[in-house]
Amino acid sequence: MLHQRRVSTTAHDDLPSPSLSEAEFHAASPADYLLFQAADLACTMEPIEAKRQEGGLGRSECTFFGGTKRVKKAHLKALRRQDF
After folding, report:
1. Stated pTM of the model
2. What is the 3 state secondary structure string of the chain?
3. CA angle (47, 52, 37) in 5-degree steps
4. How far, in Å, CA of 71 to CA of 66, rounded?
5. CA–CA separation, 51 vs 68, rounded Å?
6. Is residue 25 exposed (0-12), middle (13-18) or buried (19+ Cβ within 10 Å)?
7. Contact 52, 71 (CB under 8 A)
């Protein structure tokens, strides 16, 4: 928690940010959040699959997903079974 607070403070103090008058706020239900998360997952996995097919997954991607075979077997297979 201490590290997160330090990161947040540093980001707030040192990085430029748009003013709140430029930000748009929308009320969203928990069901909408789930939809956004599903869309984010799908949009993240497609480029990962393209890189996997070309043999170009990086070391951090292989570590995160558990290897190139696991990307296809566990993550993509489960994602493609969903009916969007």
Report:
1. 0.53
2. CHHHHHHHHHHHHHCCCCCCCCCCCCCCCHHHHHHHHHHHHHHHHHHHHHHHHCCCCCHHHHHHHCCHHHHHHHHHHHHHHCCC
3. 40
4. 7
5. 10
6. exposed
7. yes
Structural contact between residues 47 and 17, judged by C-beta atoms closer than 8 angstroms: no
Euclidean distance between CA atoms 50 and 67, whole angstroms: 15
Mean pLDDT is lowest, of 19-23, 26-30, 42-46, 49-53, for: 19-23
Give the pLDDT band (50/70/90) at residue 6: low
